[in-house]
Write a structure and sequence with these properties.
Number of strands: 17
Strand content: 25-35%
Distance between the termini: 27 Å
Helix content: 10-25%
Number of domains: 1
Radius of gyration: 18 Å
Number of helices: 7
Largest sheet: 7 strands, mixed
Strand order of the largest sheet: 5-4-15-9-10-12-6
CATH architecture: Alpha-Beta Complex
Length: about 260
């Protein structure tokens, strides 16, 4: 599906296969004609066969939160060093079948008692390491599991329904402006339980540098997605609950909406 000036078009099946791995994605989309369709409700995540990776501790707020959650495990200094180091923290997040789209349900782990969403600018990257476009990502995280021991990061981050992408991909040939705002609102029982905003200017790491490190000694035949870290972390007293509604918004991309299951 292609959206242009608030109009939606169905892409011919023969032209949409492996679409998000094309180097010429912007030019290709401009030449596609399709049938106009009504505005969609719930949509599939904009992912095909790509892996989803993530960068951590790219904002000062994230560094502070990680140090706070890991105090009991004596790992606070861990994250301060990651924030200051030249080499970024990069980790695997999800395969396509673990990813949900806007309007679908994200999950919290049954063996965790402290869970938060992490709203993040997410890059669509071609097999050759070119940034093709941008989407919104929600990196669901179990803070108590990661805080218990930094080596438990995969269990805190990687599980079914732990990743949401969408609502679509903003195809741009240039970087997003540093003033671009990321906003999140969490509603519980129809009442706002948490909200926050940040801008890309608060990100310490250049997205292009994150991509360069990710592609060192690594190949992605279908391209990949890279979450670039979060600058919004709820207070330590907050944890997600079943039925919470999460809305993450970015200008030009839209709003990623999910309910917690």
């Amino acid at each position: 599906m292609l959206e242009s000036d608030s109009r939606y078009f169905a892409l011919p099946p023969e032209k949409s296969a492996n679409l998000t791995a094309r180097e010429d994605l912007r030019e290709y989309l401009q030449g596609i004609s399709g049938n106009e369709i009504p505005a969609p409700g719930a949509v599939l995540p904009p992912i095909e066969q790509q892996e989803v990776w993530a960068a951590g501790v790219t904002y000062f707020r994230s560094r502070t939160a990680r140090m706070e959650e890991s105090k009991s495990a004596g790992g606070g200094d861990f994250y301060d060093r990651v924030y200051s180091a030249e080499r970024p923290e990069l980790f695997f997040k999800a395969t396509a079948h673990r990813v949900v789209g806007s309007g679908a349900k994200v999950r919290i782990r049954h063996d965790s008692k402290w869970n938060v969403p992490e709203p993040e600018l997410t890059l669509l990257i071609s097999p050759r390491g070119k940034v093709l476009g941008y989407t919104i990502g929600n990196d669901m995280s179990s803070r108590d599991i990661e805080g218990e021991n930094p080596l438990y990061l995969p269990q805190a981050k990687v599980y079914d329904g732990s990743c949401a992408l969408g609502p679509g991909i903003l195809v741009l040939s240039e970087p997003l402006d540093a003033s671009t705002e990321i906003a999140i609102e969490i509603r519980r029982g129809g009442v706002q339980a948490f909200s926050g905003t940040t801008t890309l200017a608060s990100m310490k790491r250049d997205p292009k540098v994150l991509v360069e490190y990710l592609f060192r000694e690594n190949s992605f035949p279908h391209g990949c997605f890279l979450m670039t870290g979060t600058g919004i972390v709820p207070p330590d007293s907050f944890t997600l609950a079943h039925g919470d509604e999460i809305r993450v918004s970015m200008a030009g991309i839209g709003t990623l909406e999910n309910t917690v299951e």
